[in-house]
Design goal:
The complex is a heterodimer of chains A (347) and B (356).
Chain A lengths: L13 E14 L5 E16 L4 E5 L6 H8 L7 E6 L2 E2 L5 H10 E4 L13 H11 L6 H14 L16 H13 L5 E5 L7 H18 L2 E6 L2 H7 L2 E6 L2 E7 H6 L4 H9 L50 E2 L5 E2 L7 H7 L6
Parallel strand pairs in A: 3-8, 3-9, 6-7, 7-8
Antiparallel strand pairs in A: 1-2, 1-4, 4-5, 9-10, 10-12, 11-12
Helix pairs in contact in A: 3-4, 3-5, 4-5, 5-6
Chain B lengths: L7 E12 L2 E13 L4 E5 L6 H8 L9 E8 L2 E2 L5 H7 L4 E4 L3 H4 L6 H12 L4 H14 L5 H4 L9 H12 L6 E5 L7 H18 L2 E6 L2 H7 L2 E6 L2 E7 H6 L4 H9 L49 E3 L2 E6 L5 H12 L4 H8 L7
Parallel strand pairs in B: 3-8, 3-9, 6-7, 7-8
Antiparallel strand pairs in B: 1-2, 1-4, 4-5, 9-10, 10-12, 11-12
Chain lengths: 347, 356
């Protein structure tokens, strides 16, 4: 299967194939019996090219954060394979895993709970050096930390301050500096701005975009906000109930979404323009089904306005439908339908 | 805004909380009106006073030791001066509120129906069976499928969107004239958010109630609000019709908010223009214009003079609290609209600037 539309030739930095993560549901206290599984991620394949930003969007419970944790090896995959920089890292342990962790760093959602309140900013940012036994000299470490603080727009003189002395946006900068400390090859940002106020959100987004350009970072950007993902990413994967339903480069995906779920998501985004108010939009009805008991075949067929008999019997595969993205849908949207649904980014 | 008597008129409302560190000026002299059948959107960031002002309307800050002054006129009756027992008759009856997190606003151990029945019977003397009928009718009204069965379920059996629908049903029990919705969709996914906003609009059309929607999300107010009030550090700094606030905003803070969000239909390459710095402490507020330390267009005397909320030239229903001249503001906004940075806009307008 060709999953690499839009990726330059050459070995991708990361390639995941058929990733599956099932969390068991158990009953009983001493003798636990497995009575089912939450299929958080159920067969995800993707590639990340060097220097690109891949966005993963979807609603609560679609498996986007679980996917990120699998890629980072914070969770053990139930099945599938992850190759990072030419090496199979799916089951590496010990020293080899530590080496992978050095190359892949993460920025978390909540800058309040992801920084130790009892440590100074200097020692928080220097922690990756301590863990990996780098830059032994104290002066050397301090110089590097101050350089990092400057890179992310913090005052290096605030080296000895504590996290509570910083605002939310500055705290998120501390998290970014810590993630950059080891010059990782891959940065995974899990909802990095959704806990921040609007004006602060823009500061952090601009910082990340600036770092992308300056340092040529490879980033996996996970968010539920489609406008933010459009602003930040080169390629985007849309997830629904543990599967990628559509993946492709930014422009074709936003201008001509083919999967009915992608279209519905984009039509639901509120746009800051009252003149569009009242224009026709088609809304999805109902809620996302439980990932413990997902619908058969196409998982979206229970809510899909275009669903036919085939959708409940045969699972669609990710395929090129001629508009630049890969879509897992038997009856992809036409341009007329995209306009009817009310997708505001459509061209 | 129409000239008819407003349903709700808030006049110079001040809410202060004395604390160990000093007095928190949460709401600092705000005035606004809400008319029947219309929606007012109150926009602001955390700590701007938007929630406190609404809680005060319902008398919910009284017990927290708040010092309240000003008037809150609801159908001509001043709620600030009303004794607690008479306020309770208004609250939940004529004015209802829905909150951000429906899970913590619903009791986890009682069935949804029981909570609805309690709300019905708290304000009207009807039998349990009648109240149950009403509960089922309300759940149907807010679009919960199979309400006769769902009425006997517990909140944990509802999804996030259905819980918020149940909260709305509870608020509608007595057909309130005014519904205050505090971040009603912030905890929800986009597709569910769109459903809830559409529901609020439909209910407003059908029941003719006025809505005050409090949110930090400019997209949400653009979708539902007729009028908008932008709050900063406890004050309303700009208020006008939704169309004007988005097309011709006049306050630099409003510009900052609009330029801070990426738009789904905007140009993708354009950089965002964030507002520098962070919102001020409400205990030690900046002197003069509260926004001046973060304002790229602030002039030296703006640290001294406190701007009043005044009508904009030629636009009697558009109010703004800014010390810049109106024509200067309009030129700055047109420069920003053309994609220029604050520093470039200052230079084009010929103002000595602080935005280097």
């Amino acid at each position: 299967m060709n999953v690499g539309v839009g990726v330059e030739s050459g070995e991708p930095l990361l390639r995941a194939r058929g990733l599956v993560k099932h969390f068991p549901i158990t009953r009983g206290i001493i003798f636990q019996r497995k009575i089912g599984a939450v299929r958080a991620v159920d067969g995800v394949s993707l590639e990340i090219a060097r220097g690109e930003t891949l966005g993963i969007v979807g609603e609560t419970g679609c498996g986007k954060s679980t996917t990120a944790r699998l890629l980072m090896r914070l969770l053990e995959a139930t099945a599938g394979e992850i190759r990072f920089d030419g090496q199979d890292i799916t089951h590496v342990k010990g020293g080899a895993l530590k080496a992978v962790r050095r190359e892949v760093q993460m920025i978390f959602q909540d800058p309040h709970s992801s920084l130790n309140p009892r440590k100074t900013v200097g020692s928080i940012i220097a922690e990756p050096f301590a863990i990996h036994g780098m830059l032994g000299g104290k002066g050397e470490r301090k110089r590097e930390v101050q350089r990092l603080m400057e890179t992310v727009g913090l005052n290096p003189e605030h080296y000895n301050r504590y996290p509570h002395e910083f605002s939310g946006g500055q705290r998120q900068r501390i998290g970014v500096a810590r993630a950059l400390a080891l010059s990782p090859k891959l940065l995974i940002a899990d909802e990095p701005v959704s806990a921040l106020d609007v004006s602060i959100q823009a500061q952090v987004l601009n910082l990340l975009r600036d770092l992308q350009r300056r340092l040529g970072l490879t980033v996996v950007f996970i968010a539920h906000d489609l406008s933010v993902v459009r602003h930040m990413c080169d390629r985007v994967a849309v997830m629904y109930l543990g599967k990628i339903v559509e993946i492709g480069p930014n422009e074709p995906l936003y201008e001509f979404p083919r999967h009915p779920y992608t279209g519905a998501l984009m039509a639901a985004v509120p746009v800051a323009d009252p003149s569009l108010h009242g224009s026709e939009r088609r809304l999805l009805s109902g809620d996302v089904p439980s990932p413990a008991n997902p619908p058969r075949a196409c998982r979206f067929h229970t809510r899909c306005p275009k669903a036919q008999q085939l959708c409940s019997t045969q699972e669609p595969q990710l395929e090129d439908k001629g508009s630049g993205t890969l879509v897992a849908c038997h009856y992809p949207l036409s341009r007329e339908e995209v306009a009817q649904i009310g997708v505001r980014s459509a061209r | 805004m129409s000239d008819a008597e407003p349903l709700l008129r808030v006049e110079d409302l001040r809410v202060e909380f004395p604390t160990e560190d000093g007095v928190v000026h949460a709401v600092d002299g705000i005035t606004y009106e809400v008319h029947a059948g219309r929606t007012l959107g109150i926009v602001g960031e955390s700590g701007s006073g938007k929630t406190v002002s609404s809680l005060t309307t319902l008398g919910l800050t009284r017990r927290q030791g708040a010092r309240i002054s000003g008037r809150i006129l609801f159908e001509g009756q001043d709620l600030v001066a009303l004794p607690e027992d008479r306020l309770r008759a208004v609250r939940g009856n004529d004015i209802a509120m829905i909150f951000q997190d429906p899970l913590s606003a619903l009791h986890p151990l009682y069935r949804v129906g029981a909570q609805l029945i309690e709300a019905v019977r708290a304000h009207s003397d009807v039998s349990k069976a009648k109240a149950r009928e009403r509960a089922i009718e309300l759940l149907g009204l807010v679009g919960i499928p199979d309400p006769a069965r769902r009425v006997d379920e517990h909140p944990h059996e509802f999804s996030g969107g259905m819980r918020q629908r149940a909260m709305i049903a509870m608020a509608l029990v007595n057909e309130p004239k005014l519904l205050i919705a505090d971040e009603p969709t912030t905890a929800l996914d986009v597709t569910v958010q769109a459903q809830i906003l559409a529901l609020l609009e439909r209910l407003q059309r059908e029941l003719g109630m006025a809505i005050v929607i409090i949110t930090h999300d400019l997209g949400v107010v653009a979708e539902v609000a007729d009028d908008i009030a932008v709050m900063y550090a406890g004050r309303i700094i700009e208020t006008a019709s939704a169309a004007r606030v988005f097309a011709d905003p006049e306050h630099p803070y409003t510009w900052g908010l609009l330029k801070s969000i990426p738009r789904l239909d905007g140009p993708r390459e354009e950089d965002l223009v964030p507002i520098p710095g962070a919102p001020p402490s409400l205990i030690r507020r900046p002197t003069g214009c509260h926004f001046h330390p973060r304002c790229p267009y602030a002039q030296p005397d703006h640290a001294r003079i406190d701007p009043a909320l005044e009508a904009v030239a030629d636009e009697p229903s558009h109010f703004v609290a800014c010390l810049l001249e109106s024509h200067t503001r309009r030129r700055l906004w047109s420069e920003l609209g053309a994609g220029r940075t604050p520093a470039q806009a200052l230079e084009a307008v010929g103002l000595p600037g602080t935005a280097a």
